[in-house]
Specification:
This protein is of the alpha+beta class. It contains 13 helices and 9 strands. Helix 4 (139-150) packs antiparallel against helix 5 and helix 11 (263-269) crosses helix 12 (275-286).
Length: 302
């Protein structure tokens, strides 16, 4: 039973239970860009190589196929026989094996997450998530619009299809927060956001990364004792509250550096005492100074 359900069961009117937006503070800081690259049948053997920083979102509309994907040192196989959404949040080699003539019908997009593999959403998801389309409430209407735009060329159709793919991703992430076990999410930010108590503290940290987030302050946000909060937080996210808040602060700092902010300004914006303090924390986390890291991650680098 989630936090809202328990309040309703306790006699609190449903209308008085405050809703919280767990995704917007994250997606506003770390954006994702979808790009449609295929709409229609796929026949035979298709290979999607792992590309650093790139994910994939495939929608199997019709047909039956086998999917192979890299799982550690082996290739795992999954047979799909119903309309299914396949989310690869990070660079993972995968292959589709379809009939050689009458292949399955797909609509596919690449996903570029701000921060690549260090994007906090990417870090908290498994390598692949396969969801029958019927599981996600409300997804059908979005997919109808997406298929209508991707199936024919009209003014702005590709741009609109890209935006609709991003809407689909948000709907999937919303479903994952509500069903972490089914999505095979065990630890990380998404698991923390699935807990109504921890989510309050996480949202506060996400919205104000420059603040001094002590254990006591985060526990107060969650409405829990410090010891209970620390234990629940570690179990859900796999890290301590202090490590999480610092990691979030540095993730946001990295996004600001990529956007062209100066090291001095980023240090000021993120609540560090000065630029050297940011540089020390940044080097401990990434192995590079902010200036070195920015040179390595500028557009076209490498």
């Amino acid at each position: 039973m989630d936090g809202n359900s328990s309040k309703v069961a306790a006699g609190v009117p449903e209308a008085s239970v405050p809703a919280i937006d767990r995704l917007t503070p994250v997606l506003e800081r770390f954006r994702v860009q979808a790009s449609l690259f295929h709409a229609g049948p796929l026949c035979g053997h298709q290979v999607f190589d792992a590309q650093p920083g790139r994910g994939f979102l495939h929608v199997l509309r019709r047909g039956e196929m086998d999917m192979l994907h890299r799982d550690g040192s082996r290739m795992a196989r999954l047979h799909l026989c119903e309309p299914t959404l396949l989310l690869f949040p990070r660079a993972v080699h995968h292959e589709f094996i379809n009939p050689p003539v009458d292949g399955s019908d797909f609509t596919c997009a690449t996903l570029d997450f701000d921060g690549g593999a260090r994007n906090p959403i990417v870090q908290s998801l498994p390598d692949v998530i396969a969801l029958p389309l019927e599981k996600i409430e409300g997804l059908g209407a979005t997919l109808d619009l997406l298929f209508a735009e991707s199936d024919q060329v009209r003014c702005g159709s590709r741009l609109l299809a890209n935006r609709l793919f991003e809407v689909v991703l948000i709907q999937v992430l919303r479903w994952i927060i509500d069903h972490p076990d089914e999505a095979r999410v065990s630890q990380g930010m998404m698991m923390g956001l699935s807990d109504p108590r921890l989510a309050k503290a996480l949202i506060a940290v996400h919205e104000a990364p420059d603040a001094d987030w002590t254990l006591a302050r985060m526990a107060t946000q969650a409405g829990m004792s410090r010891s209970a909060f620390a234990a629940a937080f570690k179990a859900a996210t796999g890290t301590t509250p202090a490590a999480y808040s610092l990691d979030w602060k540095l993730n946001v700092a990295a996004s600001l550096l990529r956007a062209g902010r100066s090291v001095k300004q980023v240090a000021l914006d993120m609540g560090f005492a000065d630029a050297p303090a940011l540089s020390r924390a940044f080097r401990r986390r990434t192995g590079a100074s902010p200036r070195e890291w920015r040179a390595q991650h500028r557009p076209g680098a490498g």
